[in-house]
Amino acid sequence: MSLLNAKTATLVIVDFQSRLMPAIHDGTRMVENAKRLVDAAKLLAVPVLMTEQNPAGLGGTVPELADAGPVITKMSFDSCAEPAFLEALAGDGELVLCGCEAHVCVGQTVLSLLEHKRRVVVVQDAIGSRAPESKEVALRRMERHGAEIVTTEMVVFEWLRTAAHPQFRPVSKLIR
């Protein structure tokens, strides 16, 4: 596999919803890292796609991320079961995923995207579950099936590639 490329990537934000986040282990840190990814994506012209699982029950996306990009509403845990989700991700670019829960909606979506022969990159410090062990098992499973596991900083600096990038200063400030 090659380095991540801002020109071919899409950032996918899965179910960062207001009624769910208080129950997620280390949820505040997750949201902070997802916000870093969104802000970097905006500075580097990386498209962002978001999902919301049953928003009538789980609420909308948390305010920190609410304006990040278009939202696909779904009832299936696997985002790929929603035709609009796959249509929005048409093409063969790499998909950088963050969200929750790692062992349910993120995990099922990742496994389905891999079945669709997509390059899937999961941001370990921007996904979560209620129980830490559920997240760990989900990460191992996704990796076994072909997902790449990375961190927020890895994504941001691979998207930049060089300190000579015109957006280096504003993007690198997101990490500090």
Brief rundown of the structure:
The chain is 40% helix and 19% strand. It has 176 residues and is an alpha/beta fold. The protein has a single domain, classed as Rossmann fold, CATH 3.40.50.
Q: Could you explain the architecture of this structure?
A:
- This protein has 176 residues and is an alpha/beta fold.
- It has one domain: 3-Layer(aba) Sandwich (Rossmann fold), CATH 3.40.50.
- The chain contains 7 helices and 6 strands.
- The protein has helices at 27-43, 55-58, 83-88, 102-115, 132-144, 152-160, 168-175, and strands at residues 10-14, 48-53, 71-74, 95-100, 120-128, 148-150.
- Strands 3-2-1-4-5-6 form a 6-stranded parallel β-sheet, with helices on both faces.
- Strand 1, helix 1 and strand 2 (48-53) form a beta-alpha-beta unit.
- The model has no long low-confidence stretch (mean pLDDT 96).
